[in-house]
Amino acid sequence: MTVSTNTLVAMTEANQNFSKVAKVAEKNGQAVIFKNNKPKYLVIDMENEDFILDLTEEERIDIITKRVLDKYLPAFKELAK
């Protein structure tokens, strides 16, 4: 997924003016909120269906892997003993 600099918003600005974040997402299909100089949140325009299709296979695998690890981490830790 490529991120345009036009879609970047600082956390402080998002807290103070969320309507700006919504406008950025509406105009560009997404808005990336940075926290501590790192991308933290992604706000997407739900009417922009291209977002889901724009992910590479590796990005999809990363998302699924994170979900599985988050959900079953305690079980994995127990199995590792």
Write the topology of this structure.
Blueprint: E1 8-10, H1 11-16, H2 18-28, E2 30-35, E3 38-44, H3 50-53, H4 57-80
Parallel strand pairs: 1-2
Antiparallel strand pairs: 2-3
Describe it.
- This protein is α+β, with helices and mostly antiparallel strands and 81 residues long.
- It is built from four helices and three strands; from the N terminus they run E-H-H-E-E-H-H.
- It has a three-stranded mixed beta sheet.
- A hairpin with a 2-residue loop joins strand 2 (30-35) and strand 3.
- The protein starts with 7 loop residues before the first strand and ends with a helix.
- 7% of the residues are buried.
- The mean pLDDT is 86.
Estimate the helix proportion, in percent: 55-70%
Lateral strand order in the biggest sheet: 1-2-3
- Uncertain runs are none
The H/E string reads EHHEEHH
According to DSSP, the number of beta strands is 3
SS class: alpha+beta
Based on CA inertia axes, which overall geometry fits?
A: elongated
Keywords, please?
single chain; 81 residues; alpha+beta; 3-stranded mixed sheet; 4 helices
